[in-house]
């Protein structure tokens, strides 16, 4: 049974990496289609999680607003993106007004969670699109892929370091299995890998890759802990079951969701 679960987890994880990497590098349209779907699935998972607390996210408007936000970001070089964002903000206000007519109860929480779903899920995926254009002004898949590579390295070596050396709990109230040794081991390897691949990331200096690696090492952990906090609040193990052995979309993207805004802020200040 243990071997079977391990194989299932390994195969689904490998397929996930292959599909995501392929869609990033093959063509921007492939990236758009994949992450458009991931954005919607993430919003749906968030909505299901909220229902455990008798909170009813306005899923229709969340998907509509999140899709517009992501699409406007992707097409920002081809359309008047300011008009697109105006439509987005207008729809978010309409979403609030609609709560008057839904008769779901917990109206204040419904609105708050609906806004947070967009802030937590759709906004980071949209900011991811802008990263290549901040240095080179063109689509560069390696810059899109770089944070994912670092997150995977951080997660893998944090797990290995924690399993072999972990003695001091990092945040036992939220995630009893995480240790300081794991966090330090994962962080150091993330920085090393970031510096090693630096020559292959056009538009990034060694300073950029080093700082982005540090950002991933820190914010990736907080992204993981935050999602663990959500799940503990409603007493569930996984956010979903779309990936056998790995859970749901939010389980797989929790670190990257929290990391991308921090990288974007750094790049905005530097460039």
SSE string, helices as H and strands as E: HHHHHHEEHHH
Mean pLDDT: 91
Alpha-carbon Rg, integer: 19 Å
Euclidean distance between termini CA atoms: 52 Å
* Order of strands, widest sheet: 1-2
- Classification by helices and strands: mainly alpha
What's the main sheet like? 2 strands, antiparallel
Q: Could you state the oligomeric state of the chains shown?
A: single chain
- How many strand segments? 2
User: Helix segment count?
Assistant: 9
**How much helicity do the residues have?**
over 70%
Question: Unreliable stretches, pLDDT < 50, 5 or more residues?
Answer: none
Name the shape in a single word: globular
Strand content: under 5%
Can you walk me through this structure?
The chain has 271 residues and is mainly α. The chain is 76% helix and 3% strand. It has nine helices and two strands; from the N terminus they run ααααααββααα. The chain has helices spanning 2-26, 28-51, 59-74, 81-102, 107-130, 141-165, 180-197, 206-234, 249-270; strands at 169-171, 175-179. A hairpin with a 3-residue loop joins strand 1 and strand 2 (175-179). Helix 1 crosses helix 2 and helix 2 (28-51) runs antiparallel to helix 3 (59-74). The longest helix has 29 residues, at 206-234. It starts with a helix and ends with a helix. The mean pLDDT is 91.
